[in-house]
Design goal:
Elements lengths: L1 H18 L11 E7 L5 H5 L5 E5 L4 E7 L17 E5 H11 L17 H14 L4 E4 L13 E4 L8 E6 L7 H16 L3 H9 E6 L4 H9 L52 H12 L3 E9 L3 E4 L11 H19 L4 E4 L10 H6 L1 H4 L8 E7 L14 H21 L19 E7 L5 H5 L5 E5 L4 E7 H7 L1 H6 L1 E5 H9 L39 H12 L6 E6 L3 E4 L11 H19 L4 E4 L10 H6 L1 H5 L8 E6 L14 H21 L7
Parallel strand pairs: 7-8, 7-9, 9-12, 10-11, 17-20, 18-19
Antiparallel strand pairs: 1-3, 1-4, 2-3, 5-6, 6-8, 10-12, 13-15, 13-16, 14-15, 18-20
Helix pairs in contact: 5-12, 9-12, 18-21
């Protein structure tokens, strides 16, 4: 009976070793690695082709590209585009050389980091590590399963202090072929639990490290059993014979906004939707479940880079200065170990990417549930800079681990000292598209246009002093219902294009629509709820209107009131509902004219002084209410001169004014406001008997 037990254990052990053995079936005889200068004509389009697999960009402006040789030789599709490229090597030769260097398959403790290992071995290794160091290390068998049912384990390392710790999150092996990623994570985990250094102990008392060893276990195993250079997961893509999603384009952060592909055959296929893959969902959920996380690294190879946000835009992140400081310090710490330079830079400096793990860790989706912190999310590209690339020999595992363990300590210390704080703000997120809408310019004095301007189908943006109106309208309605206007108006712009151009510059809130709910004579507004000038069910029907009217009355006496708008560069005085002059027309005109001159003297922007009805008829407006009878009765013997100021500009940007005009707009109107206050303080208006 004992002999059978021994035999059974032997068979199980042999089976485990065999299952972990590297044995590829894919040959690369028809593929080559070429090096191309990126700056010449046609190269940008070539690099974005789904036929190429970009391995590396050098600091000298060269790109290393894997491609089928018949596409660049003879009558190949890309022969002309690659005429400046040189062949570096045969892919099959590179992989074969890697296999010659990777013959050792021993699992003894002293040799563990001198070899790459399979999924089952690594899973058991982490489990054993936690058992041997249970006082500071905890093994989580699964945070979720991959597409093919493999567990994605996690390991937590930290010294218990009785208080909730800030977390440092490391995830590994998101790209299957980048074996050094997973091996380096193992080295760092082992270093943290076995180190006797006081510095390491202090760090583990302050923060908890979380390792997710396998983001992409299915893809990793596929590189060991079939295709050594496989990158993606093993997802089956509906309608395509090509398998796999690039998990590092699948995260829910600016997904599919450039630097990825919608072609399932591409190496950067982003999947059918954001976070469509179980592996992505599992890691996002586990990150959230372990808040607060103050730092996150997604480990990759190759190029020796330390990359901070963003990958999807050239704009600096809100914390770019602090994150650059961390990246530079980590780079210096790495260099001190073996003299290897890891360049600290923004991610988009390598090439555009969207939907990446590190941008997600730093972004809004993750930060909104991260306990008031924003995780400093980085992508680290490990060794080397191109000699071996993805096929790094196993004798470089230990030195790569040593230098990055030093960098990881600096990373944790700096973020523990100065974590990034997150304050949730009202986020601009537009859901409406304006593809069917256009902006047209119409002469207001031409026969047939007046009725058109009063239609509920139009949104009048501006009426110029020279009698032109800028109007937003559905292009189909214009063509079908307003043929006369179509012939007399000219096209200015596509509204969707205007909004997209604005969104490149800043964020934006929705246009105000409360002006016509105020209690003044009706007319110049609409009773159609679909109209942009719908006046509501009754005067002051809206809570926002009621609140401001009541607050005005509660703070009497008020001697002047301004309702701020855009755009048009106008100073508008009462009335909007009648052509008759207000009782105080002369004084209000004089002061507005003086304000116009004062504004002009600052930055030479002319604000036209005129009556409100000179723009277009309006009723129920805030400024007329300030000056009108209802407000005056509660204003303790004074009448507030109510004016509307239409700020910049006169039409180039309209409601979509770029943020770089905020300061000059403020600078020019502040002196005018001071004059407004001085004049009405010296000569306030009184109700006429």
């Amino acid at each position: 009976m004992v002999e059978w037990k021994v035999l059974l254990l032997f068979v199980l052990h042999l089976s485990l070793c065999q299952s972990a053995k590297y044995q590829r079936t894919v040959k690369y005889n028809d593929e080559i690695l070429i090096r191309c200068p990126t700056g010449f004509e046609g190269m940008k389009e070539f690099l974005q082709s789904d036929d190429v697999d970009v391995w590396h960009f050098t600091s000298e402006g060269m790109a290393d590209i894997r491609i089928k040789k018949d596409l660049v030789q003879g009558a190949g599709t890309y022969k002309e585009a690659t005429k400046e490229c040189v062949t570096i090597a045969s892919i099959e030769d590179l992989v074969h050389q890697f296999e010659v260097n990777n013959t050792r398959n021993k699992v003894g403790d002293d040799l563990w980091f001198e070899d790459y290992h399979g999924y089952d071995e690594i899973y058991e290794w982490y489990k054993d590590l936690a058992e041997e160091h249970s006082e500071i290390c905890r093994f989580v068998p699964s945070i979720g399963e991959s597409l093919e049912g493999r567990a994605q384990p996690a390991v937590h390392i930290g010294i218990e202090t009785g208080q909730e710790k800030l977390k440092i999150y490391f995830q590994c092996q998101i790209h299957a072929r980048e074996w050094i990623s997973g091996a380096t994570c193992m080295y760092m985990a082992n270093y943290l639990v076995t180190s006797t250094e006081e510095r390491v102990k202090n760090i583990l008392e302050r923060v908890e490290f979380i390792f997710v060893p396998f983001v992409n276990p299915d893809g990793y195993e596929y590189t060991r059993s079939n295709d050594r250079l496989w990158r993606k997961n093993r997802s089956v893509n509906e309608g395509s014979s090509c398998r796999g999603v690039d998990l590092n384009r699948n995260y829910n952060e600016h997904w599919s906004e450039g630097g990825s592909s919608d072609n399932p055959c591409s190496e950067t296929y982003h999947g059918p939707s954001a976070a469509s893959e179980p592996e992505t969902q599992n890691t996002q959920n586990y990150f959230r479940a372990n808040a607060p996380v103050i730092g996150a690294i997604d480990w990759h190879s190759y190029s020796q880079l330390i990359m901070r946000p963003y990958g999807w835009t050239y704009e600096d992140s809100p914390d770019d200065a602090a994150m650059k400081e961390v990246g530079d310090a980590v780079s210096a710490a790495i260099y001190e170990v073996h003299g290897k330079t890891y360049t600290s830079q923004k991610k988009i400096g390598l090439y555009p990417t969207s939907g990446t793990a590190s941008d997600w860790c730093y972004g809004e989706d993750a930060s909104s549930t991260n306990g008031g912190y924003r995780a400093a999310g980085y992508s680290f590209e490990l060794r080397d800079t191109g000699q071996y690339g993805f096929l790094l020999p196993p004798d470089q595992i230990i030195p790569t681990g040593e230098e990055n363990a030093a960098g990881a300590l600096v990373f944790a210390e700096m973020l523990a000292d100065n974590p990034l704080k997150y304050e949730e703000a009202a986020k601009y997120q537009r859901t409406v598209k304006y593809n069917d809408e256009i902006l047209i310019r119409c002469p207001t004095g031409v026969e047939g246009i007046k009725n058109f301007l009063q239609s509920d189908d139009v949104d009048i943006w501006r009426v110029t002093p020279d009698g032109m109106a800028d109007i937003r309208i559905d292009k189909h309605l214009l063509q079908e219902n307003y043929t006369e206007a179509q012939t007399k108006c000219s096209m200015v712009a596509n509204v969707e294009a205007l909004v997209q151009e604005f969104e490149k510059m800043t964020t934006r809130t929705k246009k105000k629509g409360l002006k016509d709910t105020w209690f003044e004579e009706y007319g110049g507004s609409s009773d159609n709820p679909c109209s942009e000038t719908y006046h509501g069910e009754g005067p002051a029907s809206e809570p926002e209107t009621q609140n401001t009217q009541n607050y005005f009355k509660d703070n009497a006496p008020i001697i002047g009131a301004i309702d701020w708008h855009s755009y048009g560069q106008l100073l508008l005085r009462p009335y909007g509902w009648t052509n008759e002059d207000a009782p105080d027309e002369e004084q209000m005109k004089r002061i507005n004219d003086e304000m116009s001159d004062i504004i002009y003297n600052v930055l030479e922007k002319r604000y036209i002084s005129q009556k409100s009805i000179g723009l277009y008829p309006t009723t129920g407006s805030a400024d007329d209410w300030f000056y009108g009878e209802e407000a005056t009765e509660a204003n303790k013997g004074y009448r507030a001169p109510g004016i509307t100021v239409e700020l910049r500009d006169t039409g180039e940007y309209g409601f979509l004014l770029p943020p770089d005009q905020i300061i000059p707009t403020g600078e020019e109107v502040v002196p005018a406001v001071l004059h407004f206050a001085e004049q009405y303080y010296e000569n306030p208006l009184y109700p006429q008997k």
